[in-house]
C-alpha cells in the first residue's frame, strides 16, 4: 500500500472519565455526535488525515479509559505519543482539578518534549458551568500550554484544537530537522521564529 | 434494517442505508391507492410525500431539503468545476444516488419515522384496505421500527484516502472472502486453522534441486544480492569468513570466497560469494574482469538451511576442515573448505545458535569450560554413520575427526497425532505408525551390515552389495529421522504438559455420551430434567449448555444454577426460601446506602449552592450513620468515598448500552441499584469501570434486582481479579502467549515479528468483560453460559480459548495484511459486535479439545 501521507502523528486523549474524550474524538474523526457512547474500556484509536502547509498529516488519535484505576494500562501508551490532549468537563469542577494530576502523569510517563493542550469540553452547557473560562486559561498559562473550550455536541473548536496541536508538533519537528541540518538553517529560522512567538498564546485568548 | 439499529453509527453512503431505503420504499408502495395521488409524473412515493405535504410538517421539511438537493444537482451539472472543491453539506449530498432520495433525506434529517406515523394514522386516505400500512398491527410496527434508525447519527466524514491507507475491518474481511473464495474456500478459515495448528513453518519458497540453481533463482539482480550479504532490517548476519574455498562446479577449480550465515524471517541461509565478486575495487584489468564476472555470478551459492537435513563434517590435520551440506532430496551441496584455525567449529557454533529456538544440531555441540563449543565426543557412532553415509564417494577419512550432524526441529508438530477434524485435510500419517516398523539403528546392526559386506567374495556381487548397503543406509536414515521426530515430539509434549496442563480439565467429556449434546438445552429437555422441582443431573446440564447453549426462554431458570445461586438438587421450597433471604438481604443493604446517598446528595447540593467544599460541622452531627464506627473523621472519609463511587456509577449507568431495548430509564435505575448495592458491600475496592457491563446482561435475563445482584456476586468471584486491583490479567496474557505458541506457532511468529504484540494487550477488554463488548447481546448470553459450563466440562480457563479462537478465526486476514499492533487494535475494535459467535464458540471448543488431546496422549 502506498504511503499517502507525509507525517504520522500519534496523539493521545486523556482526562477524567465522562468528560467526553470519546465524543471529542468522534466529532473530529467522523464529524458526528453520539449521545449513546458507552464508557471506554481498554484502548481504541481513530484516524484522520489533515493537510497543513501543503503536507498531508495522518493523525492517529488514541482514546483511553478515564478512571484512574486503568492508569497503569493507559500510561503504557504515553511514551509513543507526540501530542497529548488533556480534556476536562466545564460542568465538573473535579475533572478540572484533576488536570494537574494528569499533567503529573504525563511528566512521569510521556517523553519530555510531548506537545500538550487543554480542552474544556461541554461548553454548550453553559447553564451548568462550574469552571469559568478564565480559570481554564489561567491553568493553561501556568503550564505553558494552549487552551480551548470545546463542545463535541455543538461542534465548537474541536477541529481547531486538533489542528492547533498538530501544527505545534509539526513546527517542533521542523525545528528539530533544521537543527540537525544546519545548511539551510539561517533562512528558515528568520522566517519561523517571529511568527512562532506572536502565535504562541493567540489560541488562549480567542 | 437490524444492522443499522445495532451499529452505533453508519456511514451515509453505506450499502445498508440503500437497502433500508429500498425496504421502506417497498413497504410504502404496498397497496398504495394510486388514484388518490393525482397525476404526478414523479415516482409514486415522492408523489405521496407531496400529497401529505400540507398536513404533515415533517414531510414539508423533507420536501424543502429535497428541493435544495435537486437544485444543487442541477447547478452541479452546469458548473461541476466550481463546486468540486467545496465541501459544504448540501453540495456533498449531490453525490447521492437519486434512488430513494427523499427517504434518505428523511432518514438523515430524522423525520422518516414521523412521516410514517402520519401515514399510518391516515392510512385510509392513501391505501387500499389490505395494504401493509392499513394493517392495525403491521402499520404501527413498521413506523415504530424506523424510530431507531432515525435516532442514529449518520457520518459523512470519511475521506476516500482512508479507504486505502486504513481499510476498515469489514473491508478486510470482505477482501479475504473474495480472495479465499478464489481458492474454493468460502469460509473465513478453512474448517480449522488453514494449517493445522501444530506445524513447523511451511516451505516458503520453491525448492530447487541444486544449490547453483537456487542461487540463480534467488539472485534476481547483483545489487540486491550483494546487499543481502550485509546485515539489514530483513536479515541478521550471524557469521562471516573470507577466503573459504568452494568448488562450485566439477569443472572448476576450488575458488576462494566469502562465506556468510544469515538469519532471515524465513529462516537461516548460507551464502558463499567468490572473491572476484566481493572485491569490486580492482581498477586495472577491468575489462577482463567484467567479462568474467557474469560467470562468477553463476558460481555464487545460496543454501537455505531448512532444505538441509545433514551436515557432513570432515576434518583433516593439514586443512581447516570441510563441510558438506546434504539436502532433503539427498543432493550434496558443493563442499565448503575452511581455512585453518577453528573456523569450521566457529561456523557450526553460529549455525547451532541460529537454529534456536525451533531447531538444533543433532548431536549438539558440547560446551567446554574455557574452550567454548567443542565437537561432541561421539567418535565411534559418528564416524560410523558418516563413513557409511559417504561410502559411495570413496573418501578415506580419519575416524576421529568426521561427524555427521542432523539438523532437526526441536518439535515436529506435523507428526503429532492430530484430531479427526484437523487431520481430515490430509496431514501426514501420525508418528506411531511409523515407529511401529523396526527399531532405530544400533552400532551392532551396523557391524552386521559391514560383515555381510566383507563375506561377499564374487566380484559381480560387489557392485550389488554396494547398492544394498546404500539402501540399508537410506533405510536407517529414514528410521532415525522418524525416531528423532518421535523423540523431539515427546520432548515437546513434556513442555506442553508441564506448562499448559493446568489450563484444561484432565477428563474429556464427550459431546455424544450419553446423548448428543450439540443441540443444547432445549425447553423440553429442561422441563424433563427439572421435573418435580428438583434438578439433579448437573453433569448433563453442564454438558448440554457447553456444547449447544441454552434456549433463551429457560435462561432465567437455568442461569441461577450455572452461576451457583441455586444448588443442584435443591427443592422448590428451599429455592423460594433462598430467594426470600437474598431479597431481604438485598433490601437491607440498599436501605443502608440509600441513607448515605441522601446525605451525599444533601452535601452536593450545599456544596453547589454555597460553593463551599466542606460540610458544616452541625449538619454532619445531625445525621446518624448506619454503618461502621461513628467517629467523625471516619464518617467524613466514608462520605467522600461513597460520593465518589456514586458519581462514577451514575456516569456509567447513564451511558450503559443505551442502544439496547431493555435499558429504559426505569431499568437503568434497577441497574444503578444493583451496582450501588454491590459497591457498598465492596467499598474497599469501589466501583471500577466495566462492572456495569457485567451486571447488564444478568439484569436483562432476570429483570429482578435481587436475583441479578446475587448472581453478579457469584460472577464476580471469578471476574473481580481481572480488574486492575486483581492481577489476573497478566496471567491471562502469559497463558495466551504459551497457548498460541503451541497451537499456532506460525501466527505467533507473525505477531512476534510485526512489532511484537505477543503481550496480547489487545485482548484486555475481552478478558475484563468476558467478551461482552465484542458481541451482540444474544451472543453474549450464549458465550457466557458456555464459559460457566466449561468450568465443569473442559476448562476453567475457557475465556483463553475463546480469545484464541477469535484471533485464529481471522488469522489469515491478520497475516495477509501484515497487521501490527495498531492494526490489530483497530481491526478488533471495528469488528466488535460483528463476530460469528457460533463459529468462534465451536472453534474454541475444538481448541480446548486439541490441547486436552495433546496432554492426554502420553
Automatic annotation (TrEMBL), chain A:
Localization annotation: Endomembrane system
Membrane association type: Lipid-anchor
Signal peptide segment: none
Gene3D superfamilies to which the protein is assigned, alphabetical: P-loop containing nucleotide triphosphate hydrolases (3.40.50.300)
Keywords in alphabetical order: GTP-binding, Lipoprotein, Membrane, Nucleotide-binding, Prenylation
InterPro entries per the UniProt record, alphabetical: P-loop_NTPase (IPR027417), Small_GTP-bd (IPR005225), Small_GTPase (IPR001806), Small_GTPase_Rab (IPR050305)
A matching Pfam family: Ras
Keyword Thylakoid: no
GO cellular component: cytoplasm; endomembrane system
UniProt region (Disordered), positions on chain: 177-206
Domain of life: Eukaryota
GO MF, one annotated term: GTPase activity
Polar residues: compositionally biased ranges: 180-189
Entry similarity comment: Belongs to the small GTPase superfamily. Rab family.
Entries under PANTHER family matching the protein: LD44762P
Protein name, entry field: Ras-related protein Rab-8B
Automatic annotation (TrEMBL), chain B:
One Gene Ontology CC term in the entry: cytoplasmic vesicle
Residue span(s) of domain Rab-GAP TBC: 549-791
RUN domain boundaries: 11-162
GO molecular function, one term: GTPase activator activity
Source domain of life: Eukaryota
Alphabetical list of Gene3D superfamilies matching this protein: 1.20.58.900, 2.30.29.230, putative rabgap domain of human tbc1 domain family member 14 like domains (1.10.8.270), Ypt/Rab-GAP domain of gyp1p, domain 3 (1.10.472.80)
Region ranges (Disordered): 180-216
UniProt entry keywords in alphabetical sequence: GTPase activation
Pfam families referenced in this protein's UniProt entry, alphabetically: PH_RBD, RabGAP-TBC, RUN
Family: Belongs to the RUTBC family.
PANTHER family found in the cross-reference section: SMALL G PROTEIN SIGNALING MODULATOR 2-RELATED (PTHR22957:SF502), TBC1 DOMAIN FAMILY MEMBER GTPASE-ACTIVATING PROTEIN (PTHR22957)
Name this protein carries in UniProt: Rab-GAP TBC domain-containing protein
Organism the protein comes from: Capitella teleta
Amino acid at each position: 500500500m502506498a504511503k499517502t501521507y507525509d507525517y504520522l502523528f500519534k496523539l493521545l486523549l486523556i482526562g477524567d472519565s465522562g468528560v467526553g474524550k470519546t465524543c471529542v474524538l468522534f466529532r473530529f474523526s467522523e464529524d458526528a455526535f453520539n449521545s449513546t457512547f458507552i464508557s471506554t474500556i481498554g484502548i481504541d484509536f481513530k484516524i484522520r488525515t489533515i493537510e497543513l502547509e501543503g503536507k498531508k498529516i495522518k493523525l492517529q488519535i488514541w482514546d483511553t479509559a478515564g478512571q484512574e484505576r486503568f492508569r497503569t494500562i493507559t500510561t503504557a501508551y504515553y511514551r509513543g505519543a507526540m501530542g497529548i490532549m488533556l480534556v476536562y468537563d466545564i460542568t465538573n469542577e473535579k475533572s478540572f482539578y484533576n488536570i494537574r494530576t494528569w499533567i503529573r502523569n504525563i511528566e512521569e510517563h510521556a517523553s519530555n518534549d510531548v506537545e500538550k493542550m487543554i480542552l474544556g469540553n461541554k461548553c454548550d452547557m453553559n447553564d451548568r458551568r462550574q469552571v469559568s473560562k478564565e480559570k481554564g486559561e489561567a491553568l493553561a498559562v501556568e503550564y505553558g500550554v494552549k487552551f480551548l473550550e470545546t463542545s463535541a455536541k455543538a461542534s465548537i473548536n474541536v477541529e481547531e484544537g486538533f489542528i492547533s496541536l498538530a501544527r505545534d508538533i509539526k513546527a517542533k519537528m521542523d525545528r528539530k530537522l533544521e537543527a540537525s541540518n544546519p545548511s539551510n538553517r539561517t533562512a528558515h529560522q528568520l522566517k519561523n521564529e517571529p511568527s512562532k512567538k506572536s502565535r504562541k498564546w493567540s489560541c488562549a485568548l480567542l | 434494517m437490524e444492522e443499522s439499529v445495532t451499529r452505533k453509527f453508519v456511514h451515509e453512503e453505506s450499502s445498508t442505508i440503500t437497502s433500508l431505503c429500498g425496504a421502506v420504499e417497498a413497504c410504502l408502495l404496498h397497496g398504495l391507492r394510486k388514484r388518490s395521488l393525482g397525476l404526478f409524473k414523479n415516482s409514486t412515493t415522492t408523489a405521496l410525500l407531496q400529497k401529505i405535504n400540507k398536513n404533515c410538517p415533517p414531510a414539508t421539511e423533507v420536501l424543502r431539503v429535497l428541493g435544495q438537493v435537486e437544485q444543487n444537482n442541477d447547478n452541479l451539472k452546469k458548473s461541476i468545476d466550481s463546486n468540486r472543491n467545496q465541501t459544504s453539506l448540501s453540495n456533498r449530498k449531490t453525490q447521492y444516488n437519486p434512488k430513494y432520495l427523499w427517504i434518505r433525506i428523511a432518514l438523515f434529517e430524522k423525520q422518516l419515522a414521523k412521516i410514517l406515523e402520519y401515514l399510518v394514522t391516515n392510512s385510509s386516505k392513501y391505501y387500499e384496505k389490505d395494504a401493509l400500512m392499513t394493517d392495525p398491527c403491521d402499520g404501527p410496527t413498521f413506523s415504530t421500527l424506523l424510530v431507531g434508525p432515525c435516532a442514529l447519527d449518520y457520518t459523512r466524514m470519511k475521506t476516500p484516502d482512508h479507504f486505502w491507507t486504513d481499510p476498515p475491518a469489514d473491508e478486510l474481511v470482505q477482501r479475504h472472502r473474495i480472495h479465499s473464495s478464489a481458492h474454493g474456500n468460502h469460509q473465513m478459515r478453512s474448517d480449522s486453522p488453514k494449517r493445522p495448528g501444530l506445524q513447523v513453518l511451511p516451505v516458503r519458497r520453491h525448492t530447487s534441486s541444486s544449490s547453483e540453481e537456487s542461487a540463480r533463482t534467488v539472485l534476481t539482480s547483483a545489487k540486491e544480492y550483494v546487499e543481502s550479504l550485509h546485515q539489514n532490517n530483513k536479515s541478521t548476519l550471524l557469521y562471516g569468513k573470507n577466503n573459504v574455498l568452494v568448488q562450485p562446479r566439477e569443472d572448476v577449480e576450488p575458488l576462494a570466497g566469502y562465506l556468510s550465515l544469515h538469519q532471515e524471517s524465513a529462516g537461516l541461509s548460507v551464502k558463499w560469494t567468490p572473491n572476484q565478486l566481493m572485491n569490486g575495487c580492482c581498477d586495472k584489468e577491468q575489462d577482463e574482469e567484467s567479462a568474467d564476472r557474469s560467470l562468477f555470478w553463476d558460481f555464487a551459492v545460496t543454501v537455505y538451511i531448512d532444505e538441509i537435513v545433514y551436515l557432513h563434517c570432515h576434518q583433516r590435520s593439514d586443512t581447516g576442515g570441510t563441510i558438506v551440506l546434504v539436502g532433503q532430496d539427498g543432493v550434496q551441496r558443493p563442499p565448503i573448505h575452511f581455512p585453518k584455525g577453528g573456523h569450521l567449529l566457529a561456523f557450526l557454533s553460529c549455525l547451532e545458535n541460529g537454529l534456536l529456538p525451533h531447531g538444533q544440531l543433532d548431536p549438539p555441540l558440547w560446551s567446554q569450560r574455557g574452550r567454548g563449543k567443542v565437537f561432541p565426543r561421539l567418535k565411534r557412532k559418528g564416524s560410523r554413520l558418516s563413513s557409511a553415509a559417504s561410502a559411495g564417494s570413496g573418501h578415506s577419512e580419519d575416524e576421529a575427526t568426521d561427524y555427521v550432524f542432523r539438523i532437526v526441529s526441536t518439535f515436529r508438530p506435523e507428526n503429532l497425532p492430530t484430531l479427526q477434524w484437523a487431520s481430515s485435510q490430509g496431514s501426514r500419517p501420525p508418528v506411531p505408525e511409523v515407529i511401529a516398523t523396526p527399531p532405530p539403528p544400533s552400532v551392532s546392526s551396523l557391524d552386521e551390515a559391514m560383515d555381510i559386506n566383507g563375506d561377499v567374495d564374487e566380484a559381480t556381487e560387489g557392485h550389488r552389495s554396494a547398492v544394498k548397503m546404500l539402501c540399508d543406509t537410506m533405510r536407517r536414515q529414514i528410521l532415525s529421522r522418524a525416531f528423532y521426530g518421535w523423540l523431539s515430539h515427546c520432548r515437546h509434549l513434556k513442555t506442553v504438559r508441564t506448562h499448559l496442563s493446568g489450563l484444561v480439565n484432565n477428563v474429556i467429556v464427550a459431546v455424544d455420551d450419553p446423548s448428543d449434546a450439540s443441540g443444547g438445552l432445549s425447553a423440553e429437555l429442561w422441563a424433563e430434567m427439572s421435573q418435580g422441582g428438583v434438578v439433579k443431573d448437573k453433569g448433563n446440564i453442564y454438558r448440554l449448555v457447553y456444547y449447544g447453549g441454552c434456549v433463551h426462554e429457560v435462561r432465567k431458570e437455568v442461569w441461577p444454577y450455572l452461576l451457583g445461586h441455586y444448588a443442584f438438587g435443591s427443592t422448590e421450597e428451599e429455592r423460594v426460601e433462598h430467594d426470600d433471604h437474598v431479597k431481604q438481604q438485598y433490601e437491607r443493604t440498599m436501605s443502608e446506602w440509600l441513607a448515605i446517598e441522601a446525605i451525599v446528595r444533601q452535601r452536593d447540593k450545599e456544596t453547589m449552592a454555597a460553593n463551599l467544599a466542606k460540610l458544616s460541622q452541625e449538619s454532619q452531627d445531625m445525621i446518624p450513620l448506619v454503618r461502621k464506627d461513628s467517629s467523625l473523621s471516619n464518617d467524613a472519609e466514608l462520605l467522600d468515598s461513597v460520593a465518589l463511587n456514586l458519581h462514577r456509577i451514575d456516569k456509567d449507568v447513564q451511558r450503559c448500552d443505551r442502544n439496547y431495548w431493555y435499558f429504559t430509564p426505569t431499568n437503568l435505575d434497577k441497574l444503578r441499584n444493583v451496582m450501588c448495592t454491590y459497591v457498598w458491600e465492596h467499598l474497599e475496592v469501589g466501583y471500577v469501570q466495566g462492572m456495569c457491563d457485567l451486571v447488564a446482561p444478568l439484569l436483562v435475563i432476570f429483570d429482578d434486582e435481587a436475583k441479578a445482584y446475587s448472581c453478579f456476586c457469584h460472577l464476580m468471584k471469578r471476574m473481580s481479579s481481572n480488574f486492575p486491583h486483581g492481577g489476573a490479567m497478566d496471567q491471562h496474557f502469559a497463558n495466551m502467549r504459551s497457548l498460541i505458541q503451541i497451537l499456532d506457532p506460525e501466527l505467533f511468529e507473525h505477531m512476534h515479528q510485526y512489532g511484537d504484540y505477543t503481550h496480547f494487550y489487545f485482548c484486555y477488554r475481552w478478558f475484563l468483560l468476558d467478551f461482552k463488548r465484542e458481541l451482540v447481546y444474544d451472543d453474549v448470553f450464549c458465550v457466557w453460559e458456555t464459559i460457566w459450563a466449561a468450568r465443569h466440562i473442559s476448562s476453567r480457563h475457557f475465556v483463553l480459548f475463546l480469545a484464541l479462537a477469535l484471533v485464529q478465526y481471522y488469522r489469515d486476514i491478520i497475516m495477509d495484511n501484515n497487521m501490527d499492533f495498531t492494526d490489530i487494535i483497530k481491526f478488533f475494535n471495528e469488528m466488535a459486535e460483528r463476530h460469528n459467535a457460533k463459529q468462534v464458540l465451536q472453534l474454541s471448543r475444538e481448541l480446548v479439545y486439541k490441547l486436552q488431546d495433546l496432554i492426554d496422549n502420553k
